[in-house]
Structure formats: C-alpha cells, structure tokens
Specification:
The chain is 26% helix and 27% strand. Strands 8, 9, 10, 11, 12, 13 and 26 form a seven-stranded mixed sheet that branches. The radius of gyration is 23 Å and the shape is globular. The mean pLDDT is 92. Strand 12 and strand 13 form a beta hairpin. The protein contains eleven helices and 26 strands.
Length: 487
Amino acid sequence: MRIQSHPILEFPSKKSIPFYFNNQKMTGVEGDTIASALHAAGVTTLSRSLRLHRPRGFFCGIGKCSSCLMRVNGIPNVRTCTAPLHENIHVETQDTLPDVSDQVSLPSSLQPKQDVTVDVLVVGGGPAGLSAALEAVSYGASVLLVDENQMLGGQLVKQTHKFFGSKEERAGTRGIEIARQLTSELEPFIDRKKIQVMLDATVIGYYEGSKNLHRFGIVQRKGYHSVLYQVDCRAAILACGAMENMVLFPGNDLPGVYGAGAVQTLMNVYGVRPGTTVLMVGAGNVGLIVSYQLLQAGIKVDRVVEAAPVIGGYHVHAAKLRRCGVPIQTQHTIQEVYGTEHVEGAVIVRLDHQWKPIQNSEEYITCDTICLAVGLTPSTRLLSQIGVAQEFIAEAGGYVALHNEAMETTVQNIFVAGDSSGIEEASTAMVEGKIAGFSAAYNLNYTTDDQIRKKYLDQLECLRAGPFGEKPRIAKQKINELLVKQV
C-alpha cells in the first residue's frame, strides 16, 4: 500500500516502528499516525458502529469524525488518524462502547493545569492561521498558535498543485512549498520567544475571563496522555477550517468511503494508497485536483461523477484529467455502494433536469474506493460557544460568524479567518488571515496605520473577481447586510 514512486513527492525509506494491533505484531514507519500505519498494513476497519456493529474506516483524516476511535495502551477513544505511532504500543479495536483497561490509571496520567497569557491566541495552523500569526507578531504582539495536528500547514501540506493568482498570493508555488515557507517564516519569532507553537492540541472550551481578557481551555496531547492549559488572551483569531460534507446513500459508512481531504492525507502526507480503483464523486476544484493527484500516485480513477449539469471546477483541471483518459460525467450521482467489510463496487445513476434519477440508467462500477468531494462545512462550534452571532448562508457553506471587513465578529476582539468565515480557496484564506492578524494588532494598539488593511482588502477584491468568485462575493455581501441588522 506504500507509494514507491511519485512525480513530485519523495517518500524516502524511514525507520521501521513495531507495534501491536489486537495482539498481532505489525510495523509502520517513523512519521506515521496509527491509522496510516494500519492502512499501509492492509487494515481498513478501525471501529464498529454502536447499534448495528457496521464496520467503520478512515473518513476525514483530521480528527473531525469518530470513525477512527480506538484504544491505545488501554486508553479509550484515541483519534488514531492524528495520533502518532510510537514503538511497541498496543492498539485495539473498541467493541461498541469504550472501556478503560484495569492496567491504566487515568487520574495519575493527568498533569497539573498550566497557565499561559498572551496578546493573541490563533486557533488553527492552516493557511489562514499561519498568516494571521505572522501578521500579528510582525507588529509586536505576542502570539500563541495552536493546531490539532502534528505539523503546521493545514490543507497546504497535502496540496501538490501550483497556486494561481499573483506574486502576493505566491502564484506558481505548490501548496506543500507554501506550507514550508510560512512555517520557516515563523522560526525567527519562535527563537525570540514572540510566538509559541502548540501542536497536537485542541481548544476544548471558552470560559469567563478577567476584565478585557478572553479565557480558553486547551488540551495538548503528549504521547497518549494530556496536559491542560488555561490561556488568557487579549484577542483571539479563530481559523478552525472546515469539515467534509457527506452524501446520503446506502453503504456510505463502509471502509473505503473517504472524504477527499482524507485521501490527500493518506497519499500526500503519509505516502499510503487509499485503494486501487477510485470513483470520484464531485467535479468541483477539489474533486478534479484530487483525481489528478490519485493518478500521480499510480491509482486508477474510474471516472468522476457530478450531479450538476456543468463541471464546477476550473476547466484547466478538467482538461488535464480528460487528457489522462478519465471520463467526467455530469448529471450523474452515486446511488449505492456494495460490500460487506469494505467497498467492493458502486452503482451510479443519471439525473434528469430536476435532479431525479432516470429509470434504467443505473450502471455498476467495480471499485474499492469512493472519494467524496462534495463540499465543506465551516467549523464554527468554538465560535458558537463564545457567543458570536451566526447565520446560515448557503453561499458560505453553512452557518458562519457574522464579521466586518476587519474580520472581527460580534464579540469584541474575537476574529475569524479562512474557511471558518465562509468556504473559499487557500489564497483568500491567507489574505483573510493577514487582515485578522493586522486587525488584532491594531485593536491592541501595536499599530495605528490602517493603510495596510486597505491593501489586503484590495487583494481580496481581486481574488474574488470573475465568475468563480461570484459565490463568495454573494456570501460576504449577505454577511455584511446581516451584521448591519445586528448592530
């Protein structure tokens, strides 16, 4: 299952890491998560559903769903898609509800709470969060940057394609390289102790703080144990990203049905093939780009199906796929998936102009992988807990926080940026991050020159020009109108 050769990425030999899965000895490699090591070893069923005991596999790959929860060294509910693989650990599938091994004493594993005070807390180390942290610290604010994963970069670490736009948006540079650039730009500030980076950590809640301070609880995982932090900050920027959408069809919970981000994670981060033959559902930019990345990894893409009458992504991406012999069928959708323990095939069906299945148009496809690229939903749960006003805006991908052009929400000194403020591309996320970082520094009196924000707003306007920017333009207009009503 390991990728041996790739036209862009390199997967050099790494140190073997032995571990035990249900008392059977296996090996992964240094840098694996538990789930990527299991996948590489051919294990795709990671858990069972509570009521029907149906097999569940690797779906989101970023710790957002519960399909990969397993018991590790006796500790239940470990998110194995993000938990690092360590030597000689014991990994077990949980039989329905989790229990705690008699050999584990959880209270003794807890560390005393630690207190941190900073000017700006940035939640999320993707393109928006990294840009926000760099902008805020460049004006002198102290920053704590928190991310759930083992590395910074968010979706950028999976993106092997070159970005569009201008020099300011790093056009012509691959996403994986942009992640390296942004991370390296943090290093001088880390050395000067102006930025603290907390990886493998989750913001678990927002609490009542003292005057003019926001208080958050953060749990950082160290090994498979945790340390609790109480963080007080003068401003917070939430760049929490988004979650994969699901499509309803029989068999959509079988191992072998992945979100597009999970497929990218397995292939482009850990060098593991998700399967051998893929049916891609969705012909937006994500579906088209991930299909091409699958081909680069030596995996067959049977076809791309798209329920809409037209291809949603850039035609340059669709043309590359077609030149490689991959059909793209519009007005088609997935109807059902077959298999008992894993995907064995799927049925697709043609749709009429009212999006209804056309009788006798069903077609059976033999495949072991279904990749869903059917959109994203903004992650807003922490914003909800803070009490930020939100509204459902379809063009933004779901419920989003109302915010002004400075990216400030209805709660003073709480900012939002990137997909959390409405689903768009990484280029706009980086510019929004800069605006949020600048605005936080401005509100905290680290700068008085507001011209830089105007420059970033002009950049955003250029990025959203043209037909592909219509949806975010509408979304931001609605957000602005609803915010005015709130005030």
